[in-house]
Amino acid sequence: MAMQNENASTLNLEEKSEVPGIDLEEDQESDTHAASQWQLMWWKFRKHRIAMAAGLVIISLYFVAIFCEFLAPYALDHREVEYAFAPPQRLHFISDDGIHLWPFVYGLHGIRHPETLRKFYIEDKSKKYSLRLFVRGESYYFWGLFKTDLHLFGVDKGGALFLLGTDHLGRDLLSRIIYGSRISLTIGLVGVALSFVFGLVIGVVSGYYGGWVDNVIQRGIEILRSFPSIPLWMALAASLPASWSPLQVYMGITVVLSFIGWTGLARQVRGKILSLREEDFATAALLAGASKWRIMTRHLLPSFMSHIIVSITLAVPGMILGETSLSFLGLGLRPPVTSWGVLLKEAQNVQAVAFQPWLLTPVIFVIITVLAFNFVGDGLRDAADPYSR
């Protein structure tokens, strides 16, 4: 059947090519010439399979961040102290009763080691709890708009579901990672947005006006870039008042992260403006009476907007890693705010990592996010390059 369809399509192409006045190559070239810059970028980006897959991963991560209350099996502050440092549970399909079409988990039973007195858990195979979808659990306010108790998955009452284990207070690590994605992923977007505004405005002014304005701005950028990033972030984050609310700390960390992030973009924009300000279209706009601000915003910036988008995409992972590093060191976000960096702070103790290695699970999500953004950035960079193939 597939061979017949292929032969039919080949015949159609041959028939179309035999029709006088119709040329397939000319049609494709005309479509290419009539397409806009964004359409050409999209056509080239679709050919980058790794970047497309990474884009789907990023969309999935932000989907999880948006609907974290519904997707998490437990609330953020849900505690079960009797299951402190419980290991990740395994999903089973086979039991003594036979094969089950739907996964289930066994109950957990904690006992003390007779010599070390360290608590460890064994599966209680006399208790089985099936994994269920759209279960009723703890109530929550979805985005603060309405109250509900519906969760995507869970187990029946009396059972526990800890797919990634628990922390020292018996809190489900998977739920906390899902909740932490909202902070870790959005702080990158907010920080990059601020860096985008600073870098764009300062870079355009520096490149277009030149002279002493360019010298002052570039010397200031060099001074900022001469400081090591992590110590400077630590100093600025430590200067935040300890009495600030979690929301104020969140905004403060965002400003701190964007304080240095704009310098690289500003220099890239400056270089592009220097190469374009003497072009014919910019000179024609100036002779036509356009103001300098209009030339910068309506003629120069749109000509390399694709390059700016690529730079922003590649800057988001740096912001996420910056927040994770500061929170891990105790100088970033602090509880009760939950982010991936705050969760990793519990893994600072080597002994805890040795006995509870699942506390490092947030690192996997950080790595996946950073790699996904880098792959998307590489795909956009290749799509925006007119000389790439």
Question: Can you put this structure into words, describing what you see?
Answer:
This protein has 389 residues and is of the alpha+beta class. It contains 15 helices and five strands. A hairpin with a 2-residue loop joins β1 and β2. α9 packs antiparallel against α12 and α12 packs antiparallel against α15. The longest helix has 37 residues.
Key phrases:
389 residues; disordered N terminus; elongated; single chain; alpha+beta
How are the strands of the biggest sheet laid out side by side?
A: 1-2-3
SSE order, one letter for each helix or strand: HHHHHEEEEEHHHHHHHHHH
Q: Helical content, roughly?
A: 55-70%
Shape: elongated
Poorly predicted ranges: 1-26
Distance between the termini: 34 Å
What's the total count of β strands?
Answer: 5
Structural class: alpha+beta
Could you tell me the radius of gyration in angstroms?
A: 28 Å
Strand percentage lies at 5-15%
Summarize the structure.
The chain has 389 residues and is an alpha+beta fold.
How are the SSEs placed, and which strands pair?
Elements: H1 2-18, H2 24-34, H3 37-46, H4 49-66, H5 68-71, E1 92-95, E2 98-112, E3 119-130, E4 132-142, E5 146-154, H6 173-209, H7 211-226, H8 229-238, H9 246-276, H10 280-287, H11 292-300, H12 305-328, H13 340-345, H14 350-355, H15 361-384
Antiparallel strand pairs: 1-2, 2-3, 4-5
Helix pairs in contact: 3-15, 4-6, 4-15, 6-7, 6-9, 6-12, 8-9, 9-12, 10-11, 12-15
